[in-house]
Design goal:
single chain; 337 residues; Membrane-bound Lytic Murein Transglycosylase D, Chain A; Barwin-like endoglucanases; 7 helices
Length: 337
């Protein structure tokens, strides 16, 4: 019996790891939106139900089949997007996390048409999620059009972040000791540690002329450096690349920051953070009272729900910590957003 439950648990983890390693593209149009899944070895209706946050019987009915009929490797299954597992208003339960869902822009397709075909999500919301304006939407671009809601119990295997087209942003932050995603020719794998935990992610190599944001240059202050965990961060003028995008709302919090390793920020000033209860894509201002330095970081997703996060308010990239002059893995900061 114990062996049986262990097998079920491992099968679920394999499925969730697979989910974290690929962008999810929405199929269909309103009101019949769905995700398409290719069945892998050892997957069952129950493991697919956990993956897409759908009762197995509802998943079976949507595919006009029976639970008595075994799944076959490579079989295409449709996972419906409903109010229970799909969010476009930022609302989720306390035990749920978000995974971004995408639409690939077609020729002569404008944001208004994409909005209509995806539950009339406001165009302004599409612009905010993807950090673009209407005239920057181009054919072939992957556009976030909503979020899959999964249980927090699964989120540790698929801690997700928004991916802004044209920006070097990781697709997923995986949990400690999880094998890194399969390396693609254009996606080098970056490995590192955050406190005592190991954080792995992939950073796509994208065309840096895709958006206006990537065409900017980050001014440098010659001779000014800061070190953290054995690396050196070139001092970036005025707190980093994202300063110009910061919009204060009057909210602030003080707490303890941790660190995760990132290839970004050391030369380009692009600093990132993981923080709960702050919308993905938000720009936050982080002040380190010990040095009175501050940086501006983009929120990639929620703080991973793991024991190493206990007592932390947020995690920031090691380049950001270096710019602040932080000399330890945990340090007190004040955050404004």
């Amino acid at each position: 019996m114990i062996r049986k439950y262990c097998l079920i648990f491992l099968t679920s983890l394999i499925s969730l790891a697979s989910l974290a390693q690929s962008d999810l593209v929405i199929q269909g149009t309103s009101p019949a939106l769905y995700l398409q899944h290719s069945v892998a070895a050892k997957e069952t209706w129950y493991s697919l139900g956990r993956m897409y946050n759908i009762p197995p019987k509802e998943l079976v009915a949507y595919n006009n089949t029976s639970m008595d009929k075994p799944l076959e490797i490579g079989q295409l299954i449709k996972a419906p997007l409903t109010g229970a597992n799909f969010s476009q208003n930022g609302v989720k339960a306390a035990d749920e996390a978000f995974i971004p869902l995408y639409h690939i822009i077609q020729e002569k397709e404008w944001l208004y048409r994409i909005s209509v075909n995806h539950n009339k999500v406001p165009v302004e919301q599409l612009e905010k999620w993807n950090n673009i304006s209407k005239d920057q939407a181009k054919p072939g671009m992957k556009l976030i059009v909503g979020y899959l809601k999964v249980k927090q119990a699964n989120a540790s295997w698929a801690t997700t972040v928004s991916r802004v087209p044209g920006e070097e942003t990781p697709k997923a932050v995986l949990p400690p000791k999880q094998d890194p995603p399969v390396k693609k020719a254009s996606e080098p794998v970056v490995t590192g540690t955050a406190s005592s935990a190991e954080t792995r992610r992939t950073e796509p190599q994208t065309n840096k002329t895709t958006t206006q944001e990537t065409s900017k240059t980050v001014p440098q202050e010659p001779g000014k450096t800061a070190t953290t965990q054995g690396r050196t961060a070139t001092g970036t003028s005025a707190g980093g690349y994202f300063r110009s995008q910061y919009e204060a709302s009057g909210k602030s919090v003080s707490g303890v920051a941790g660190i995760f390793k990132s290839a970004s920020g050391w030369g380009d000033g692009k600093y990132y953070a993981l923080m709960k209860d702050v919308p993905v894509g938000s720009i936050i201002k982080i002040n380190f009272p010990s040095t009175n330095k501050e940086v501006y970081a983009k929120v990639l997703g929620e703080l991973p729900d793991m024991k190493e996060s206990a007592g932390l308010t947020l995690r920031i990239s090691d380049a950001a910590a270096g710019q602040l002059g932080a000399g330890s893995n945990k340090f007190s900061v004040s955050v404004m957003y």
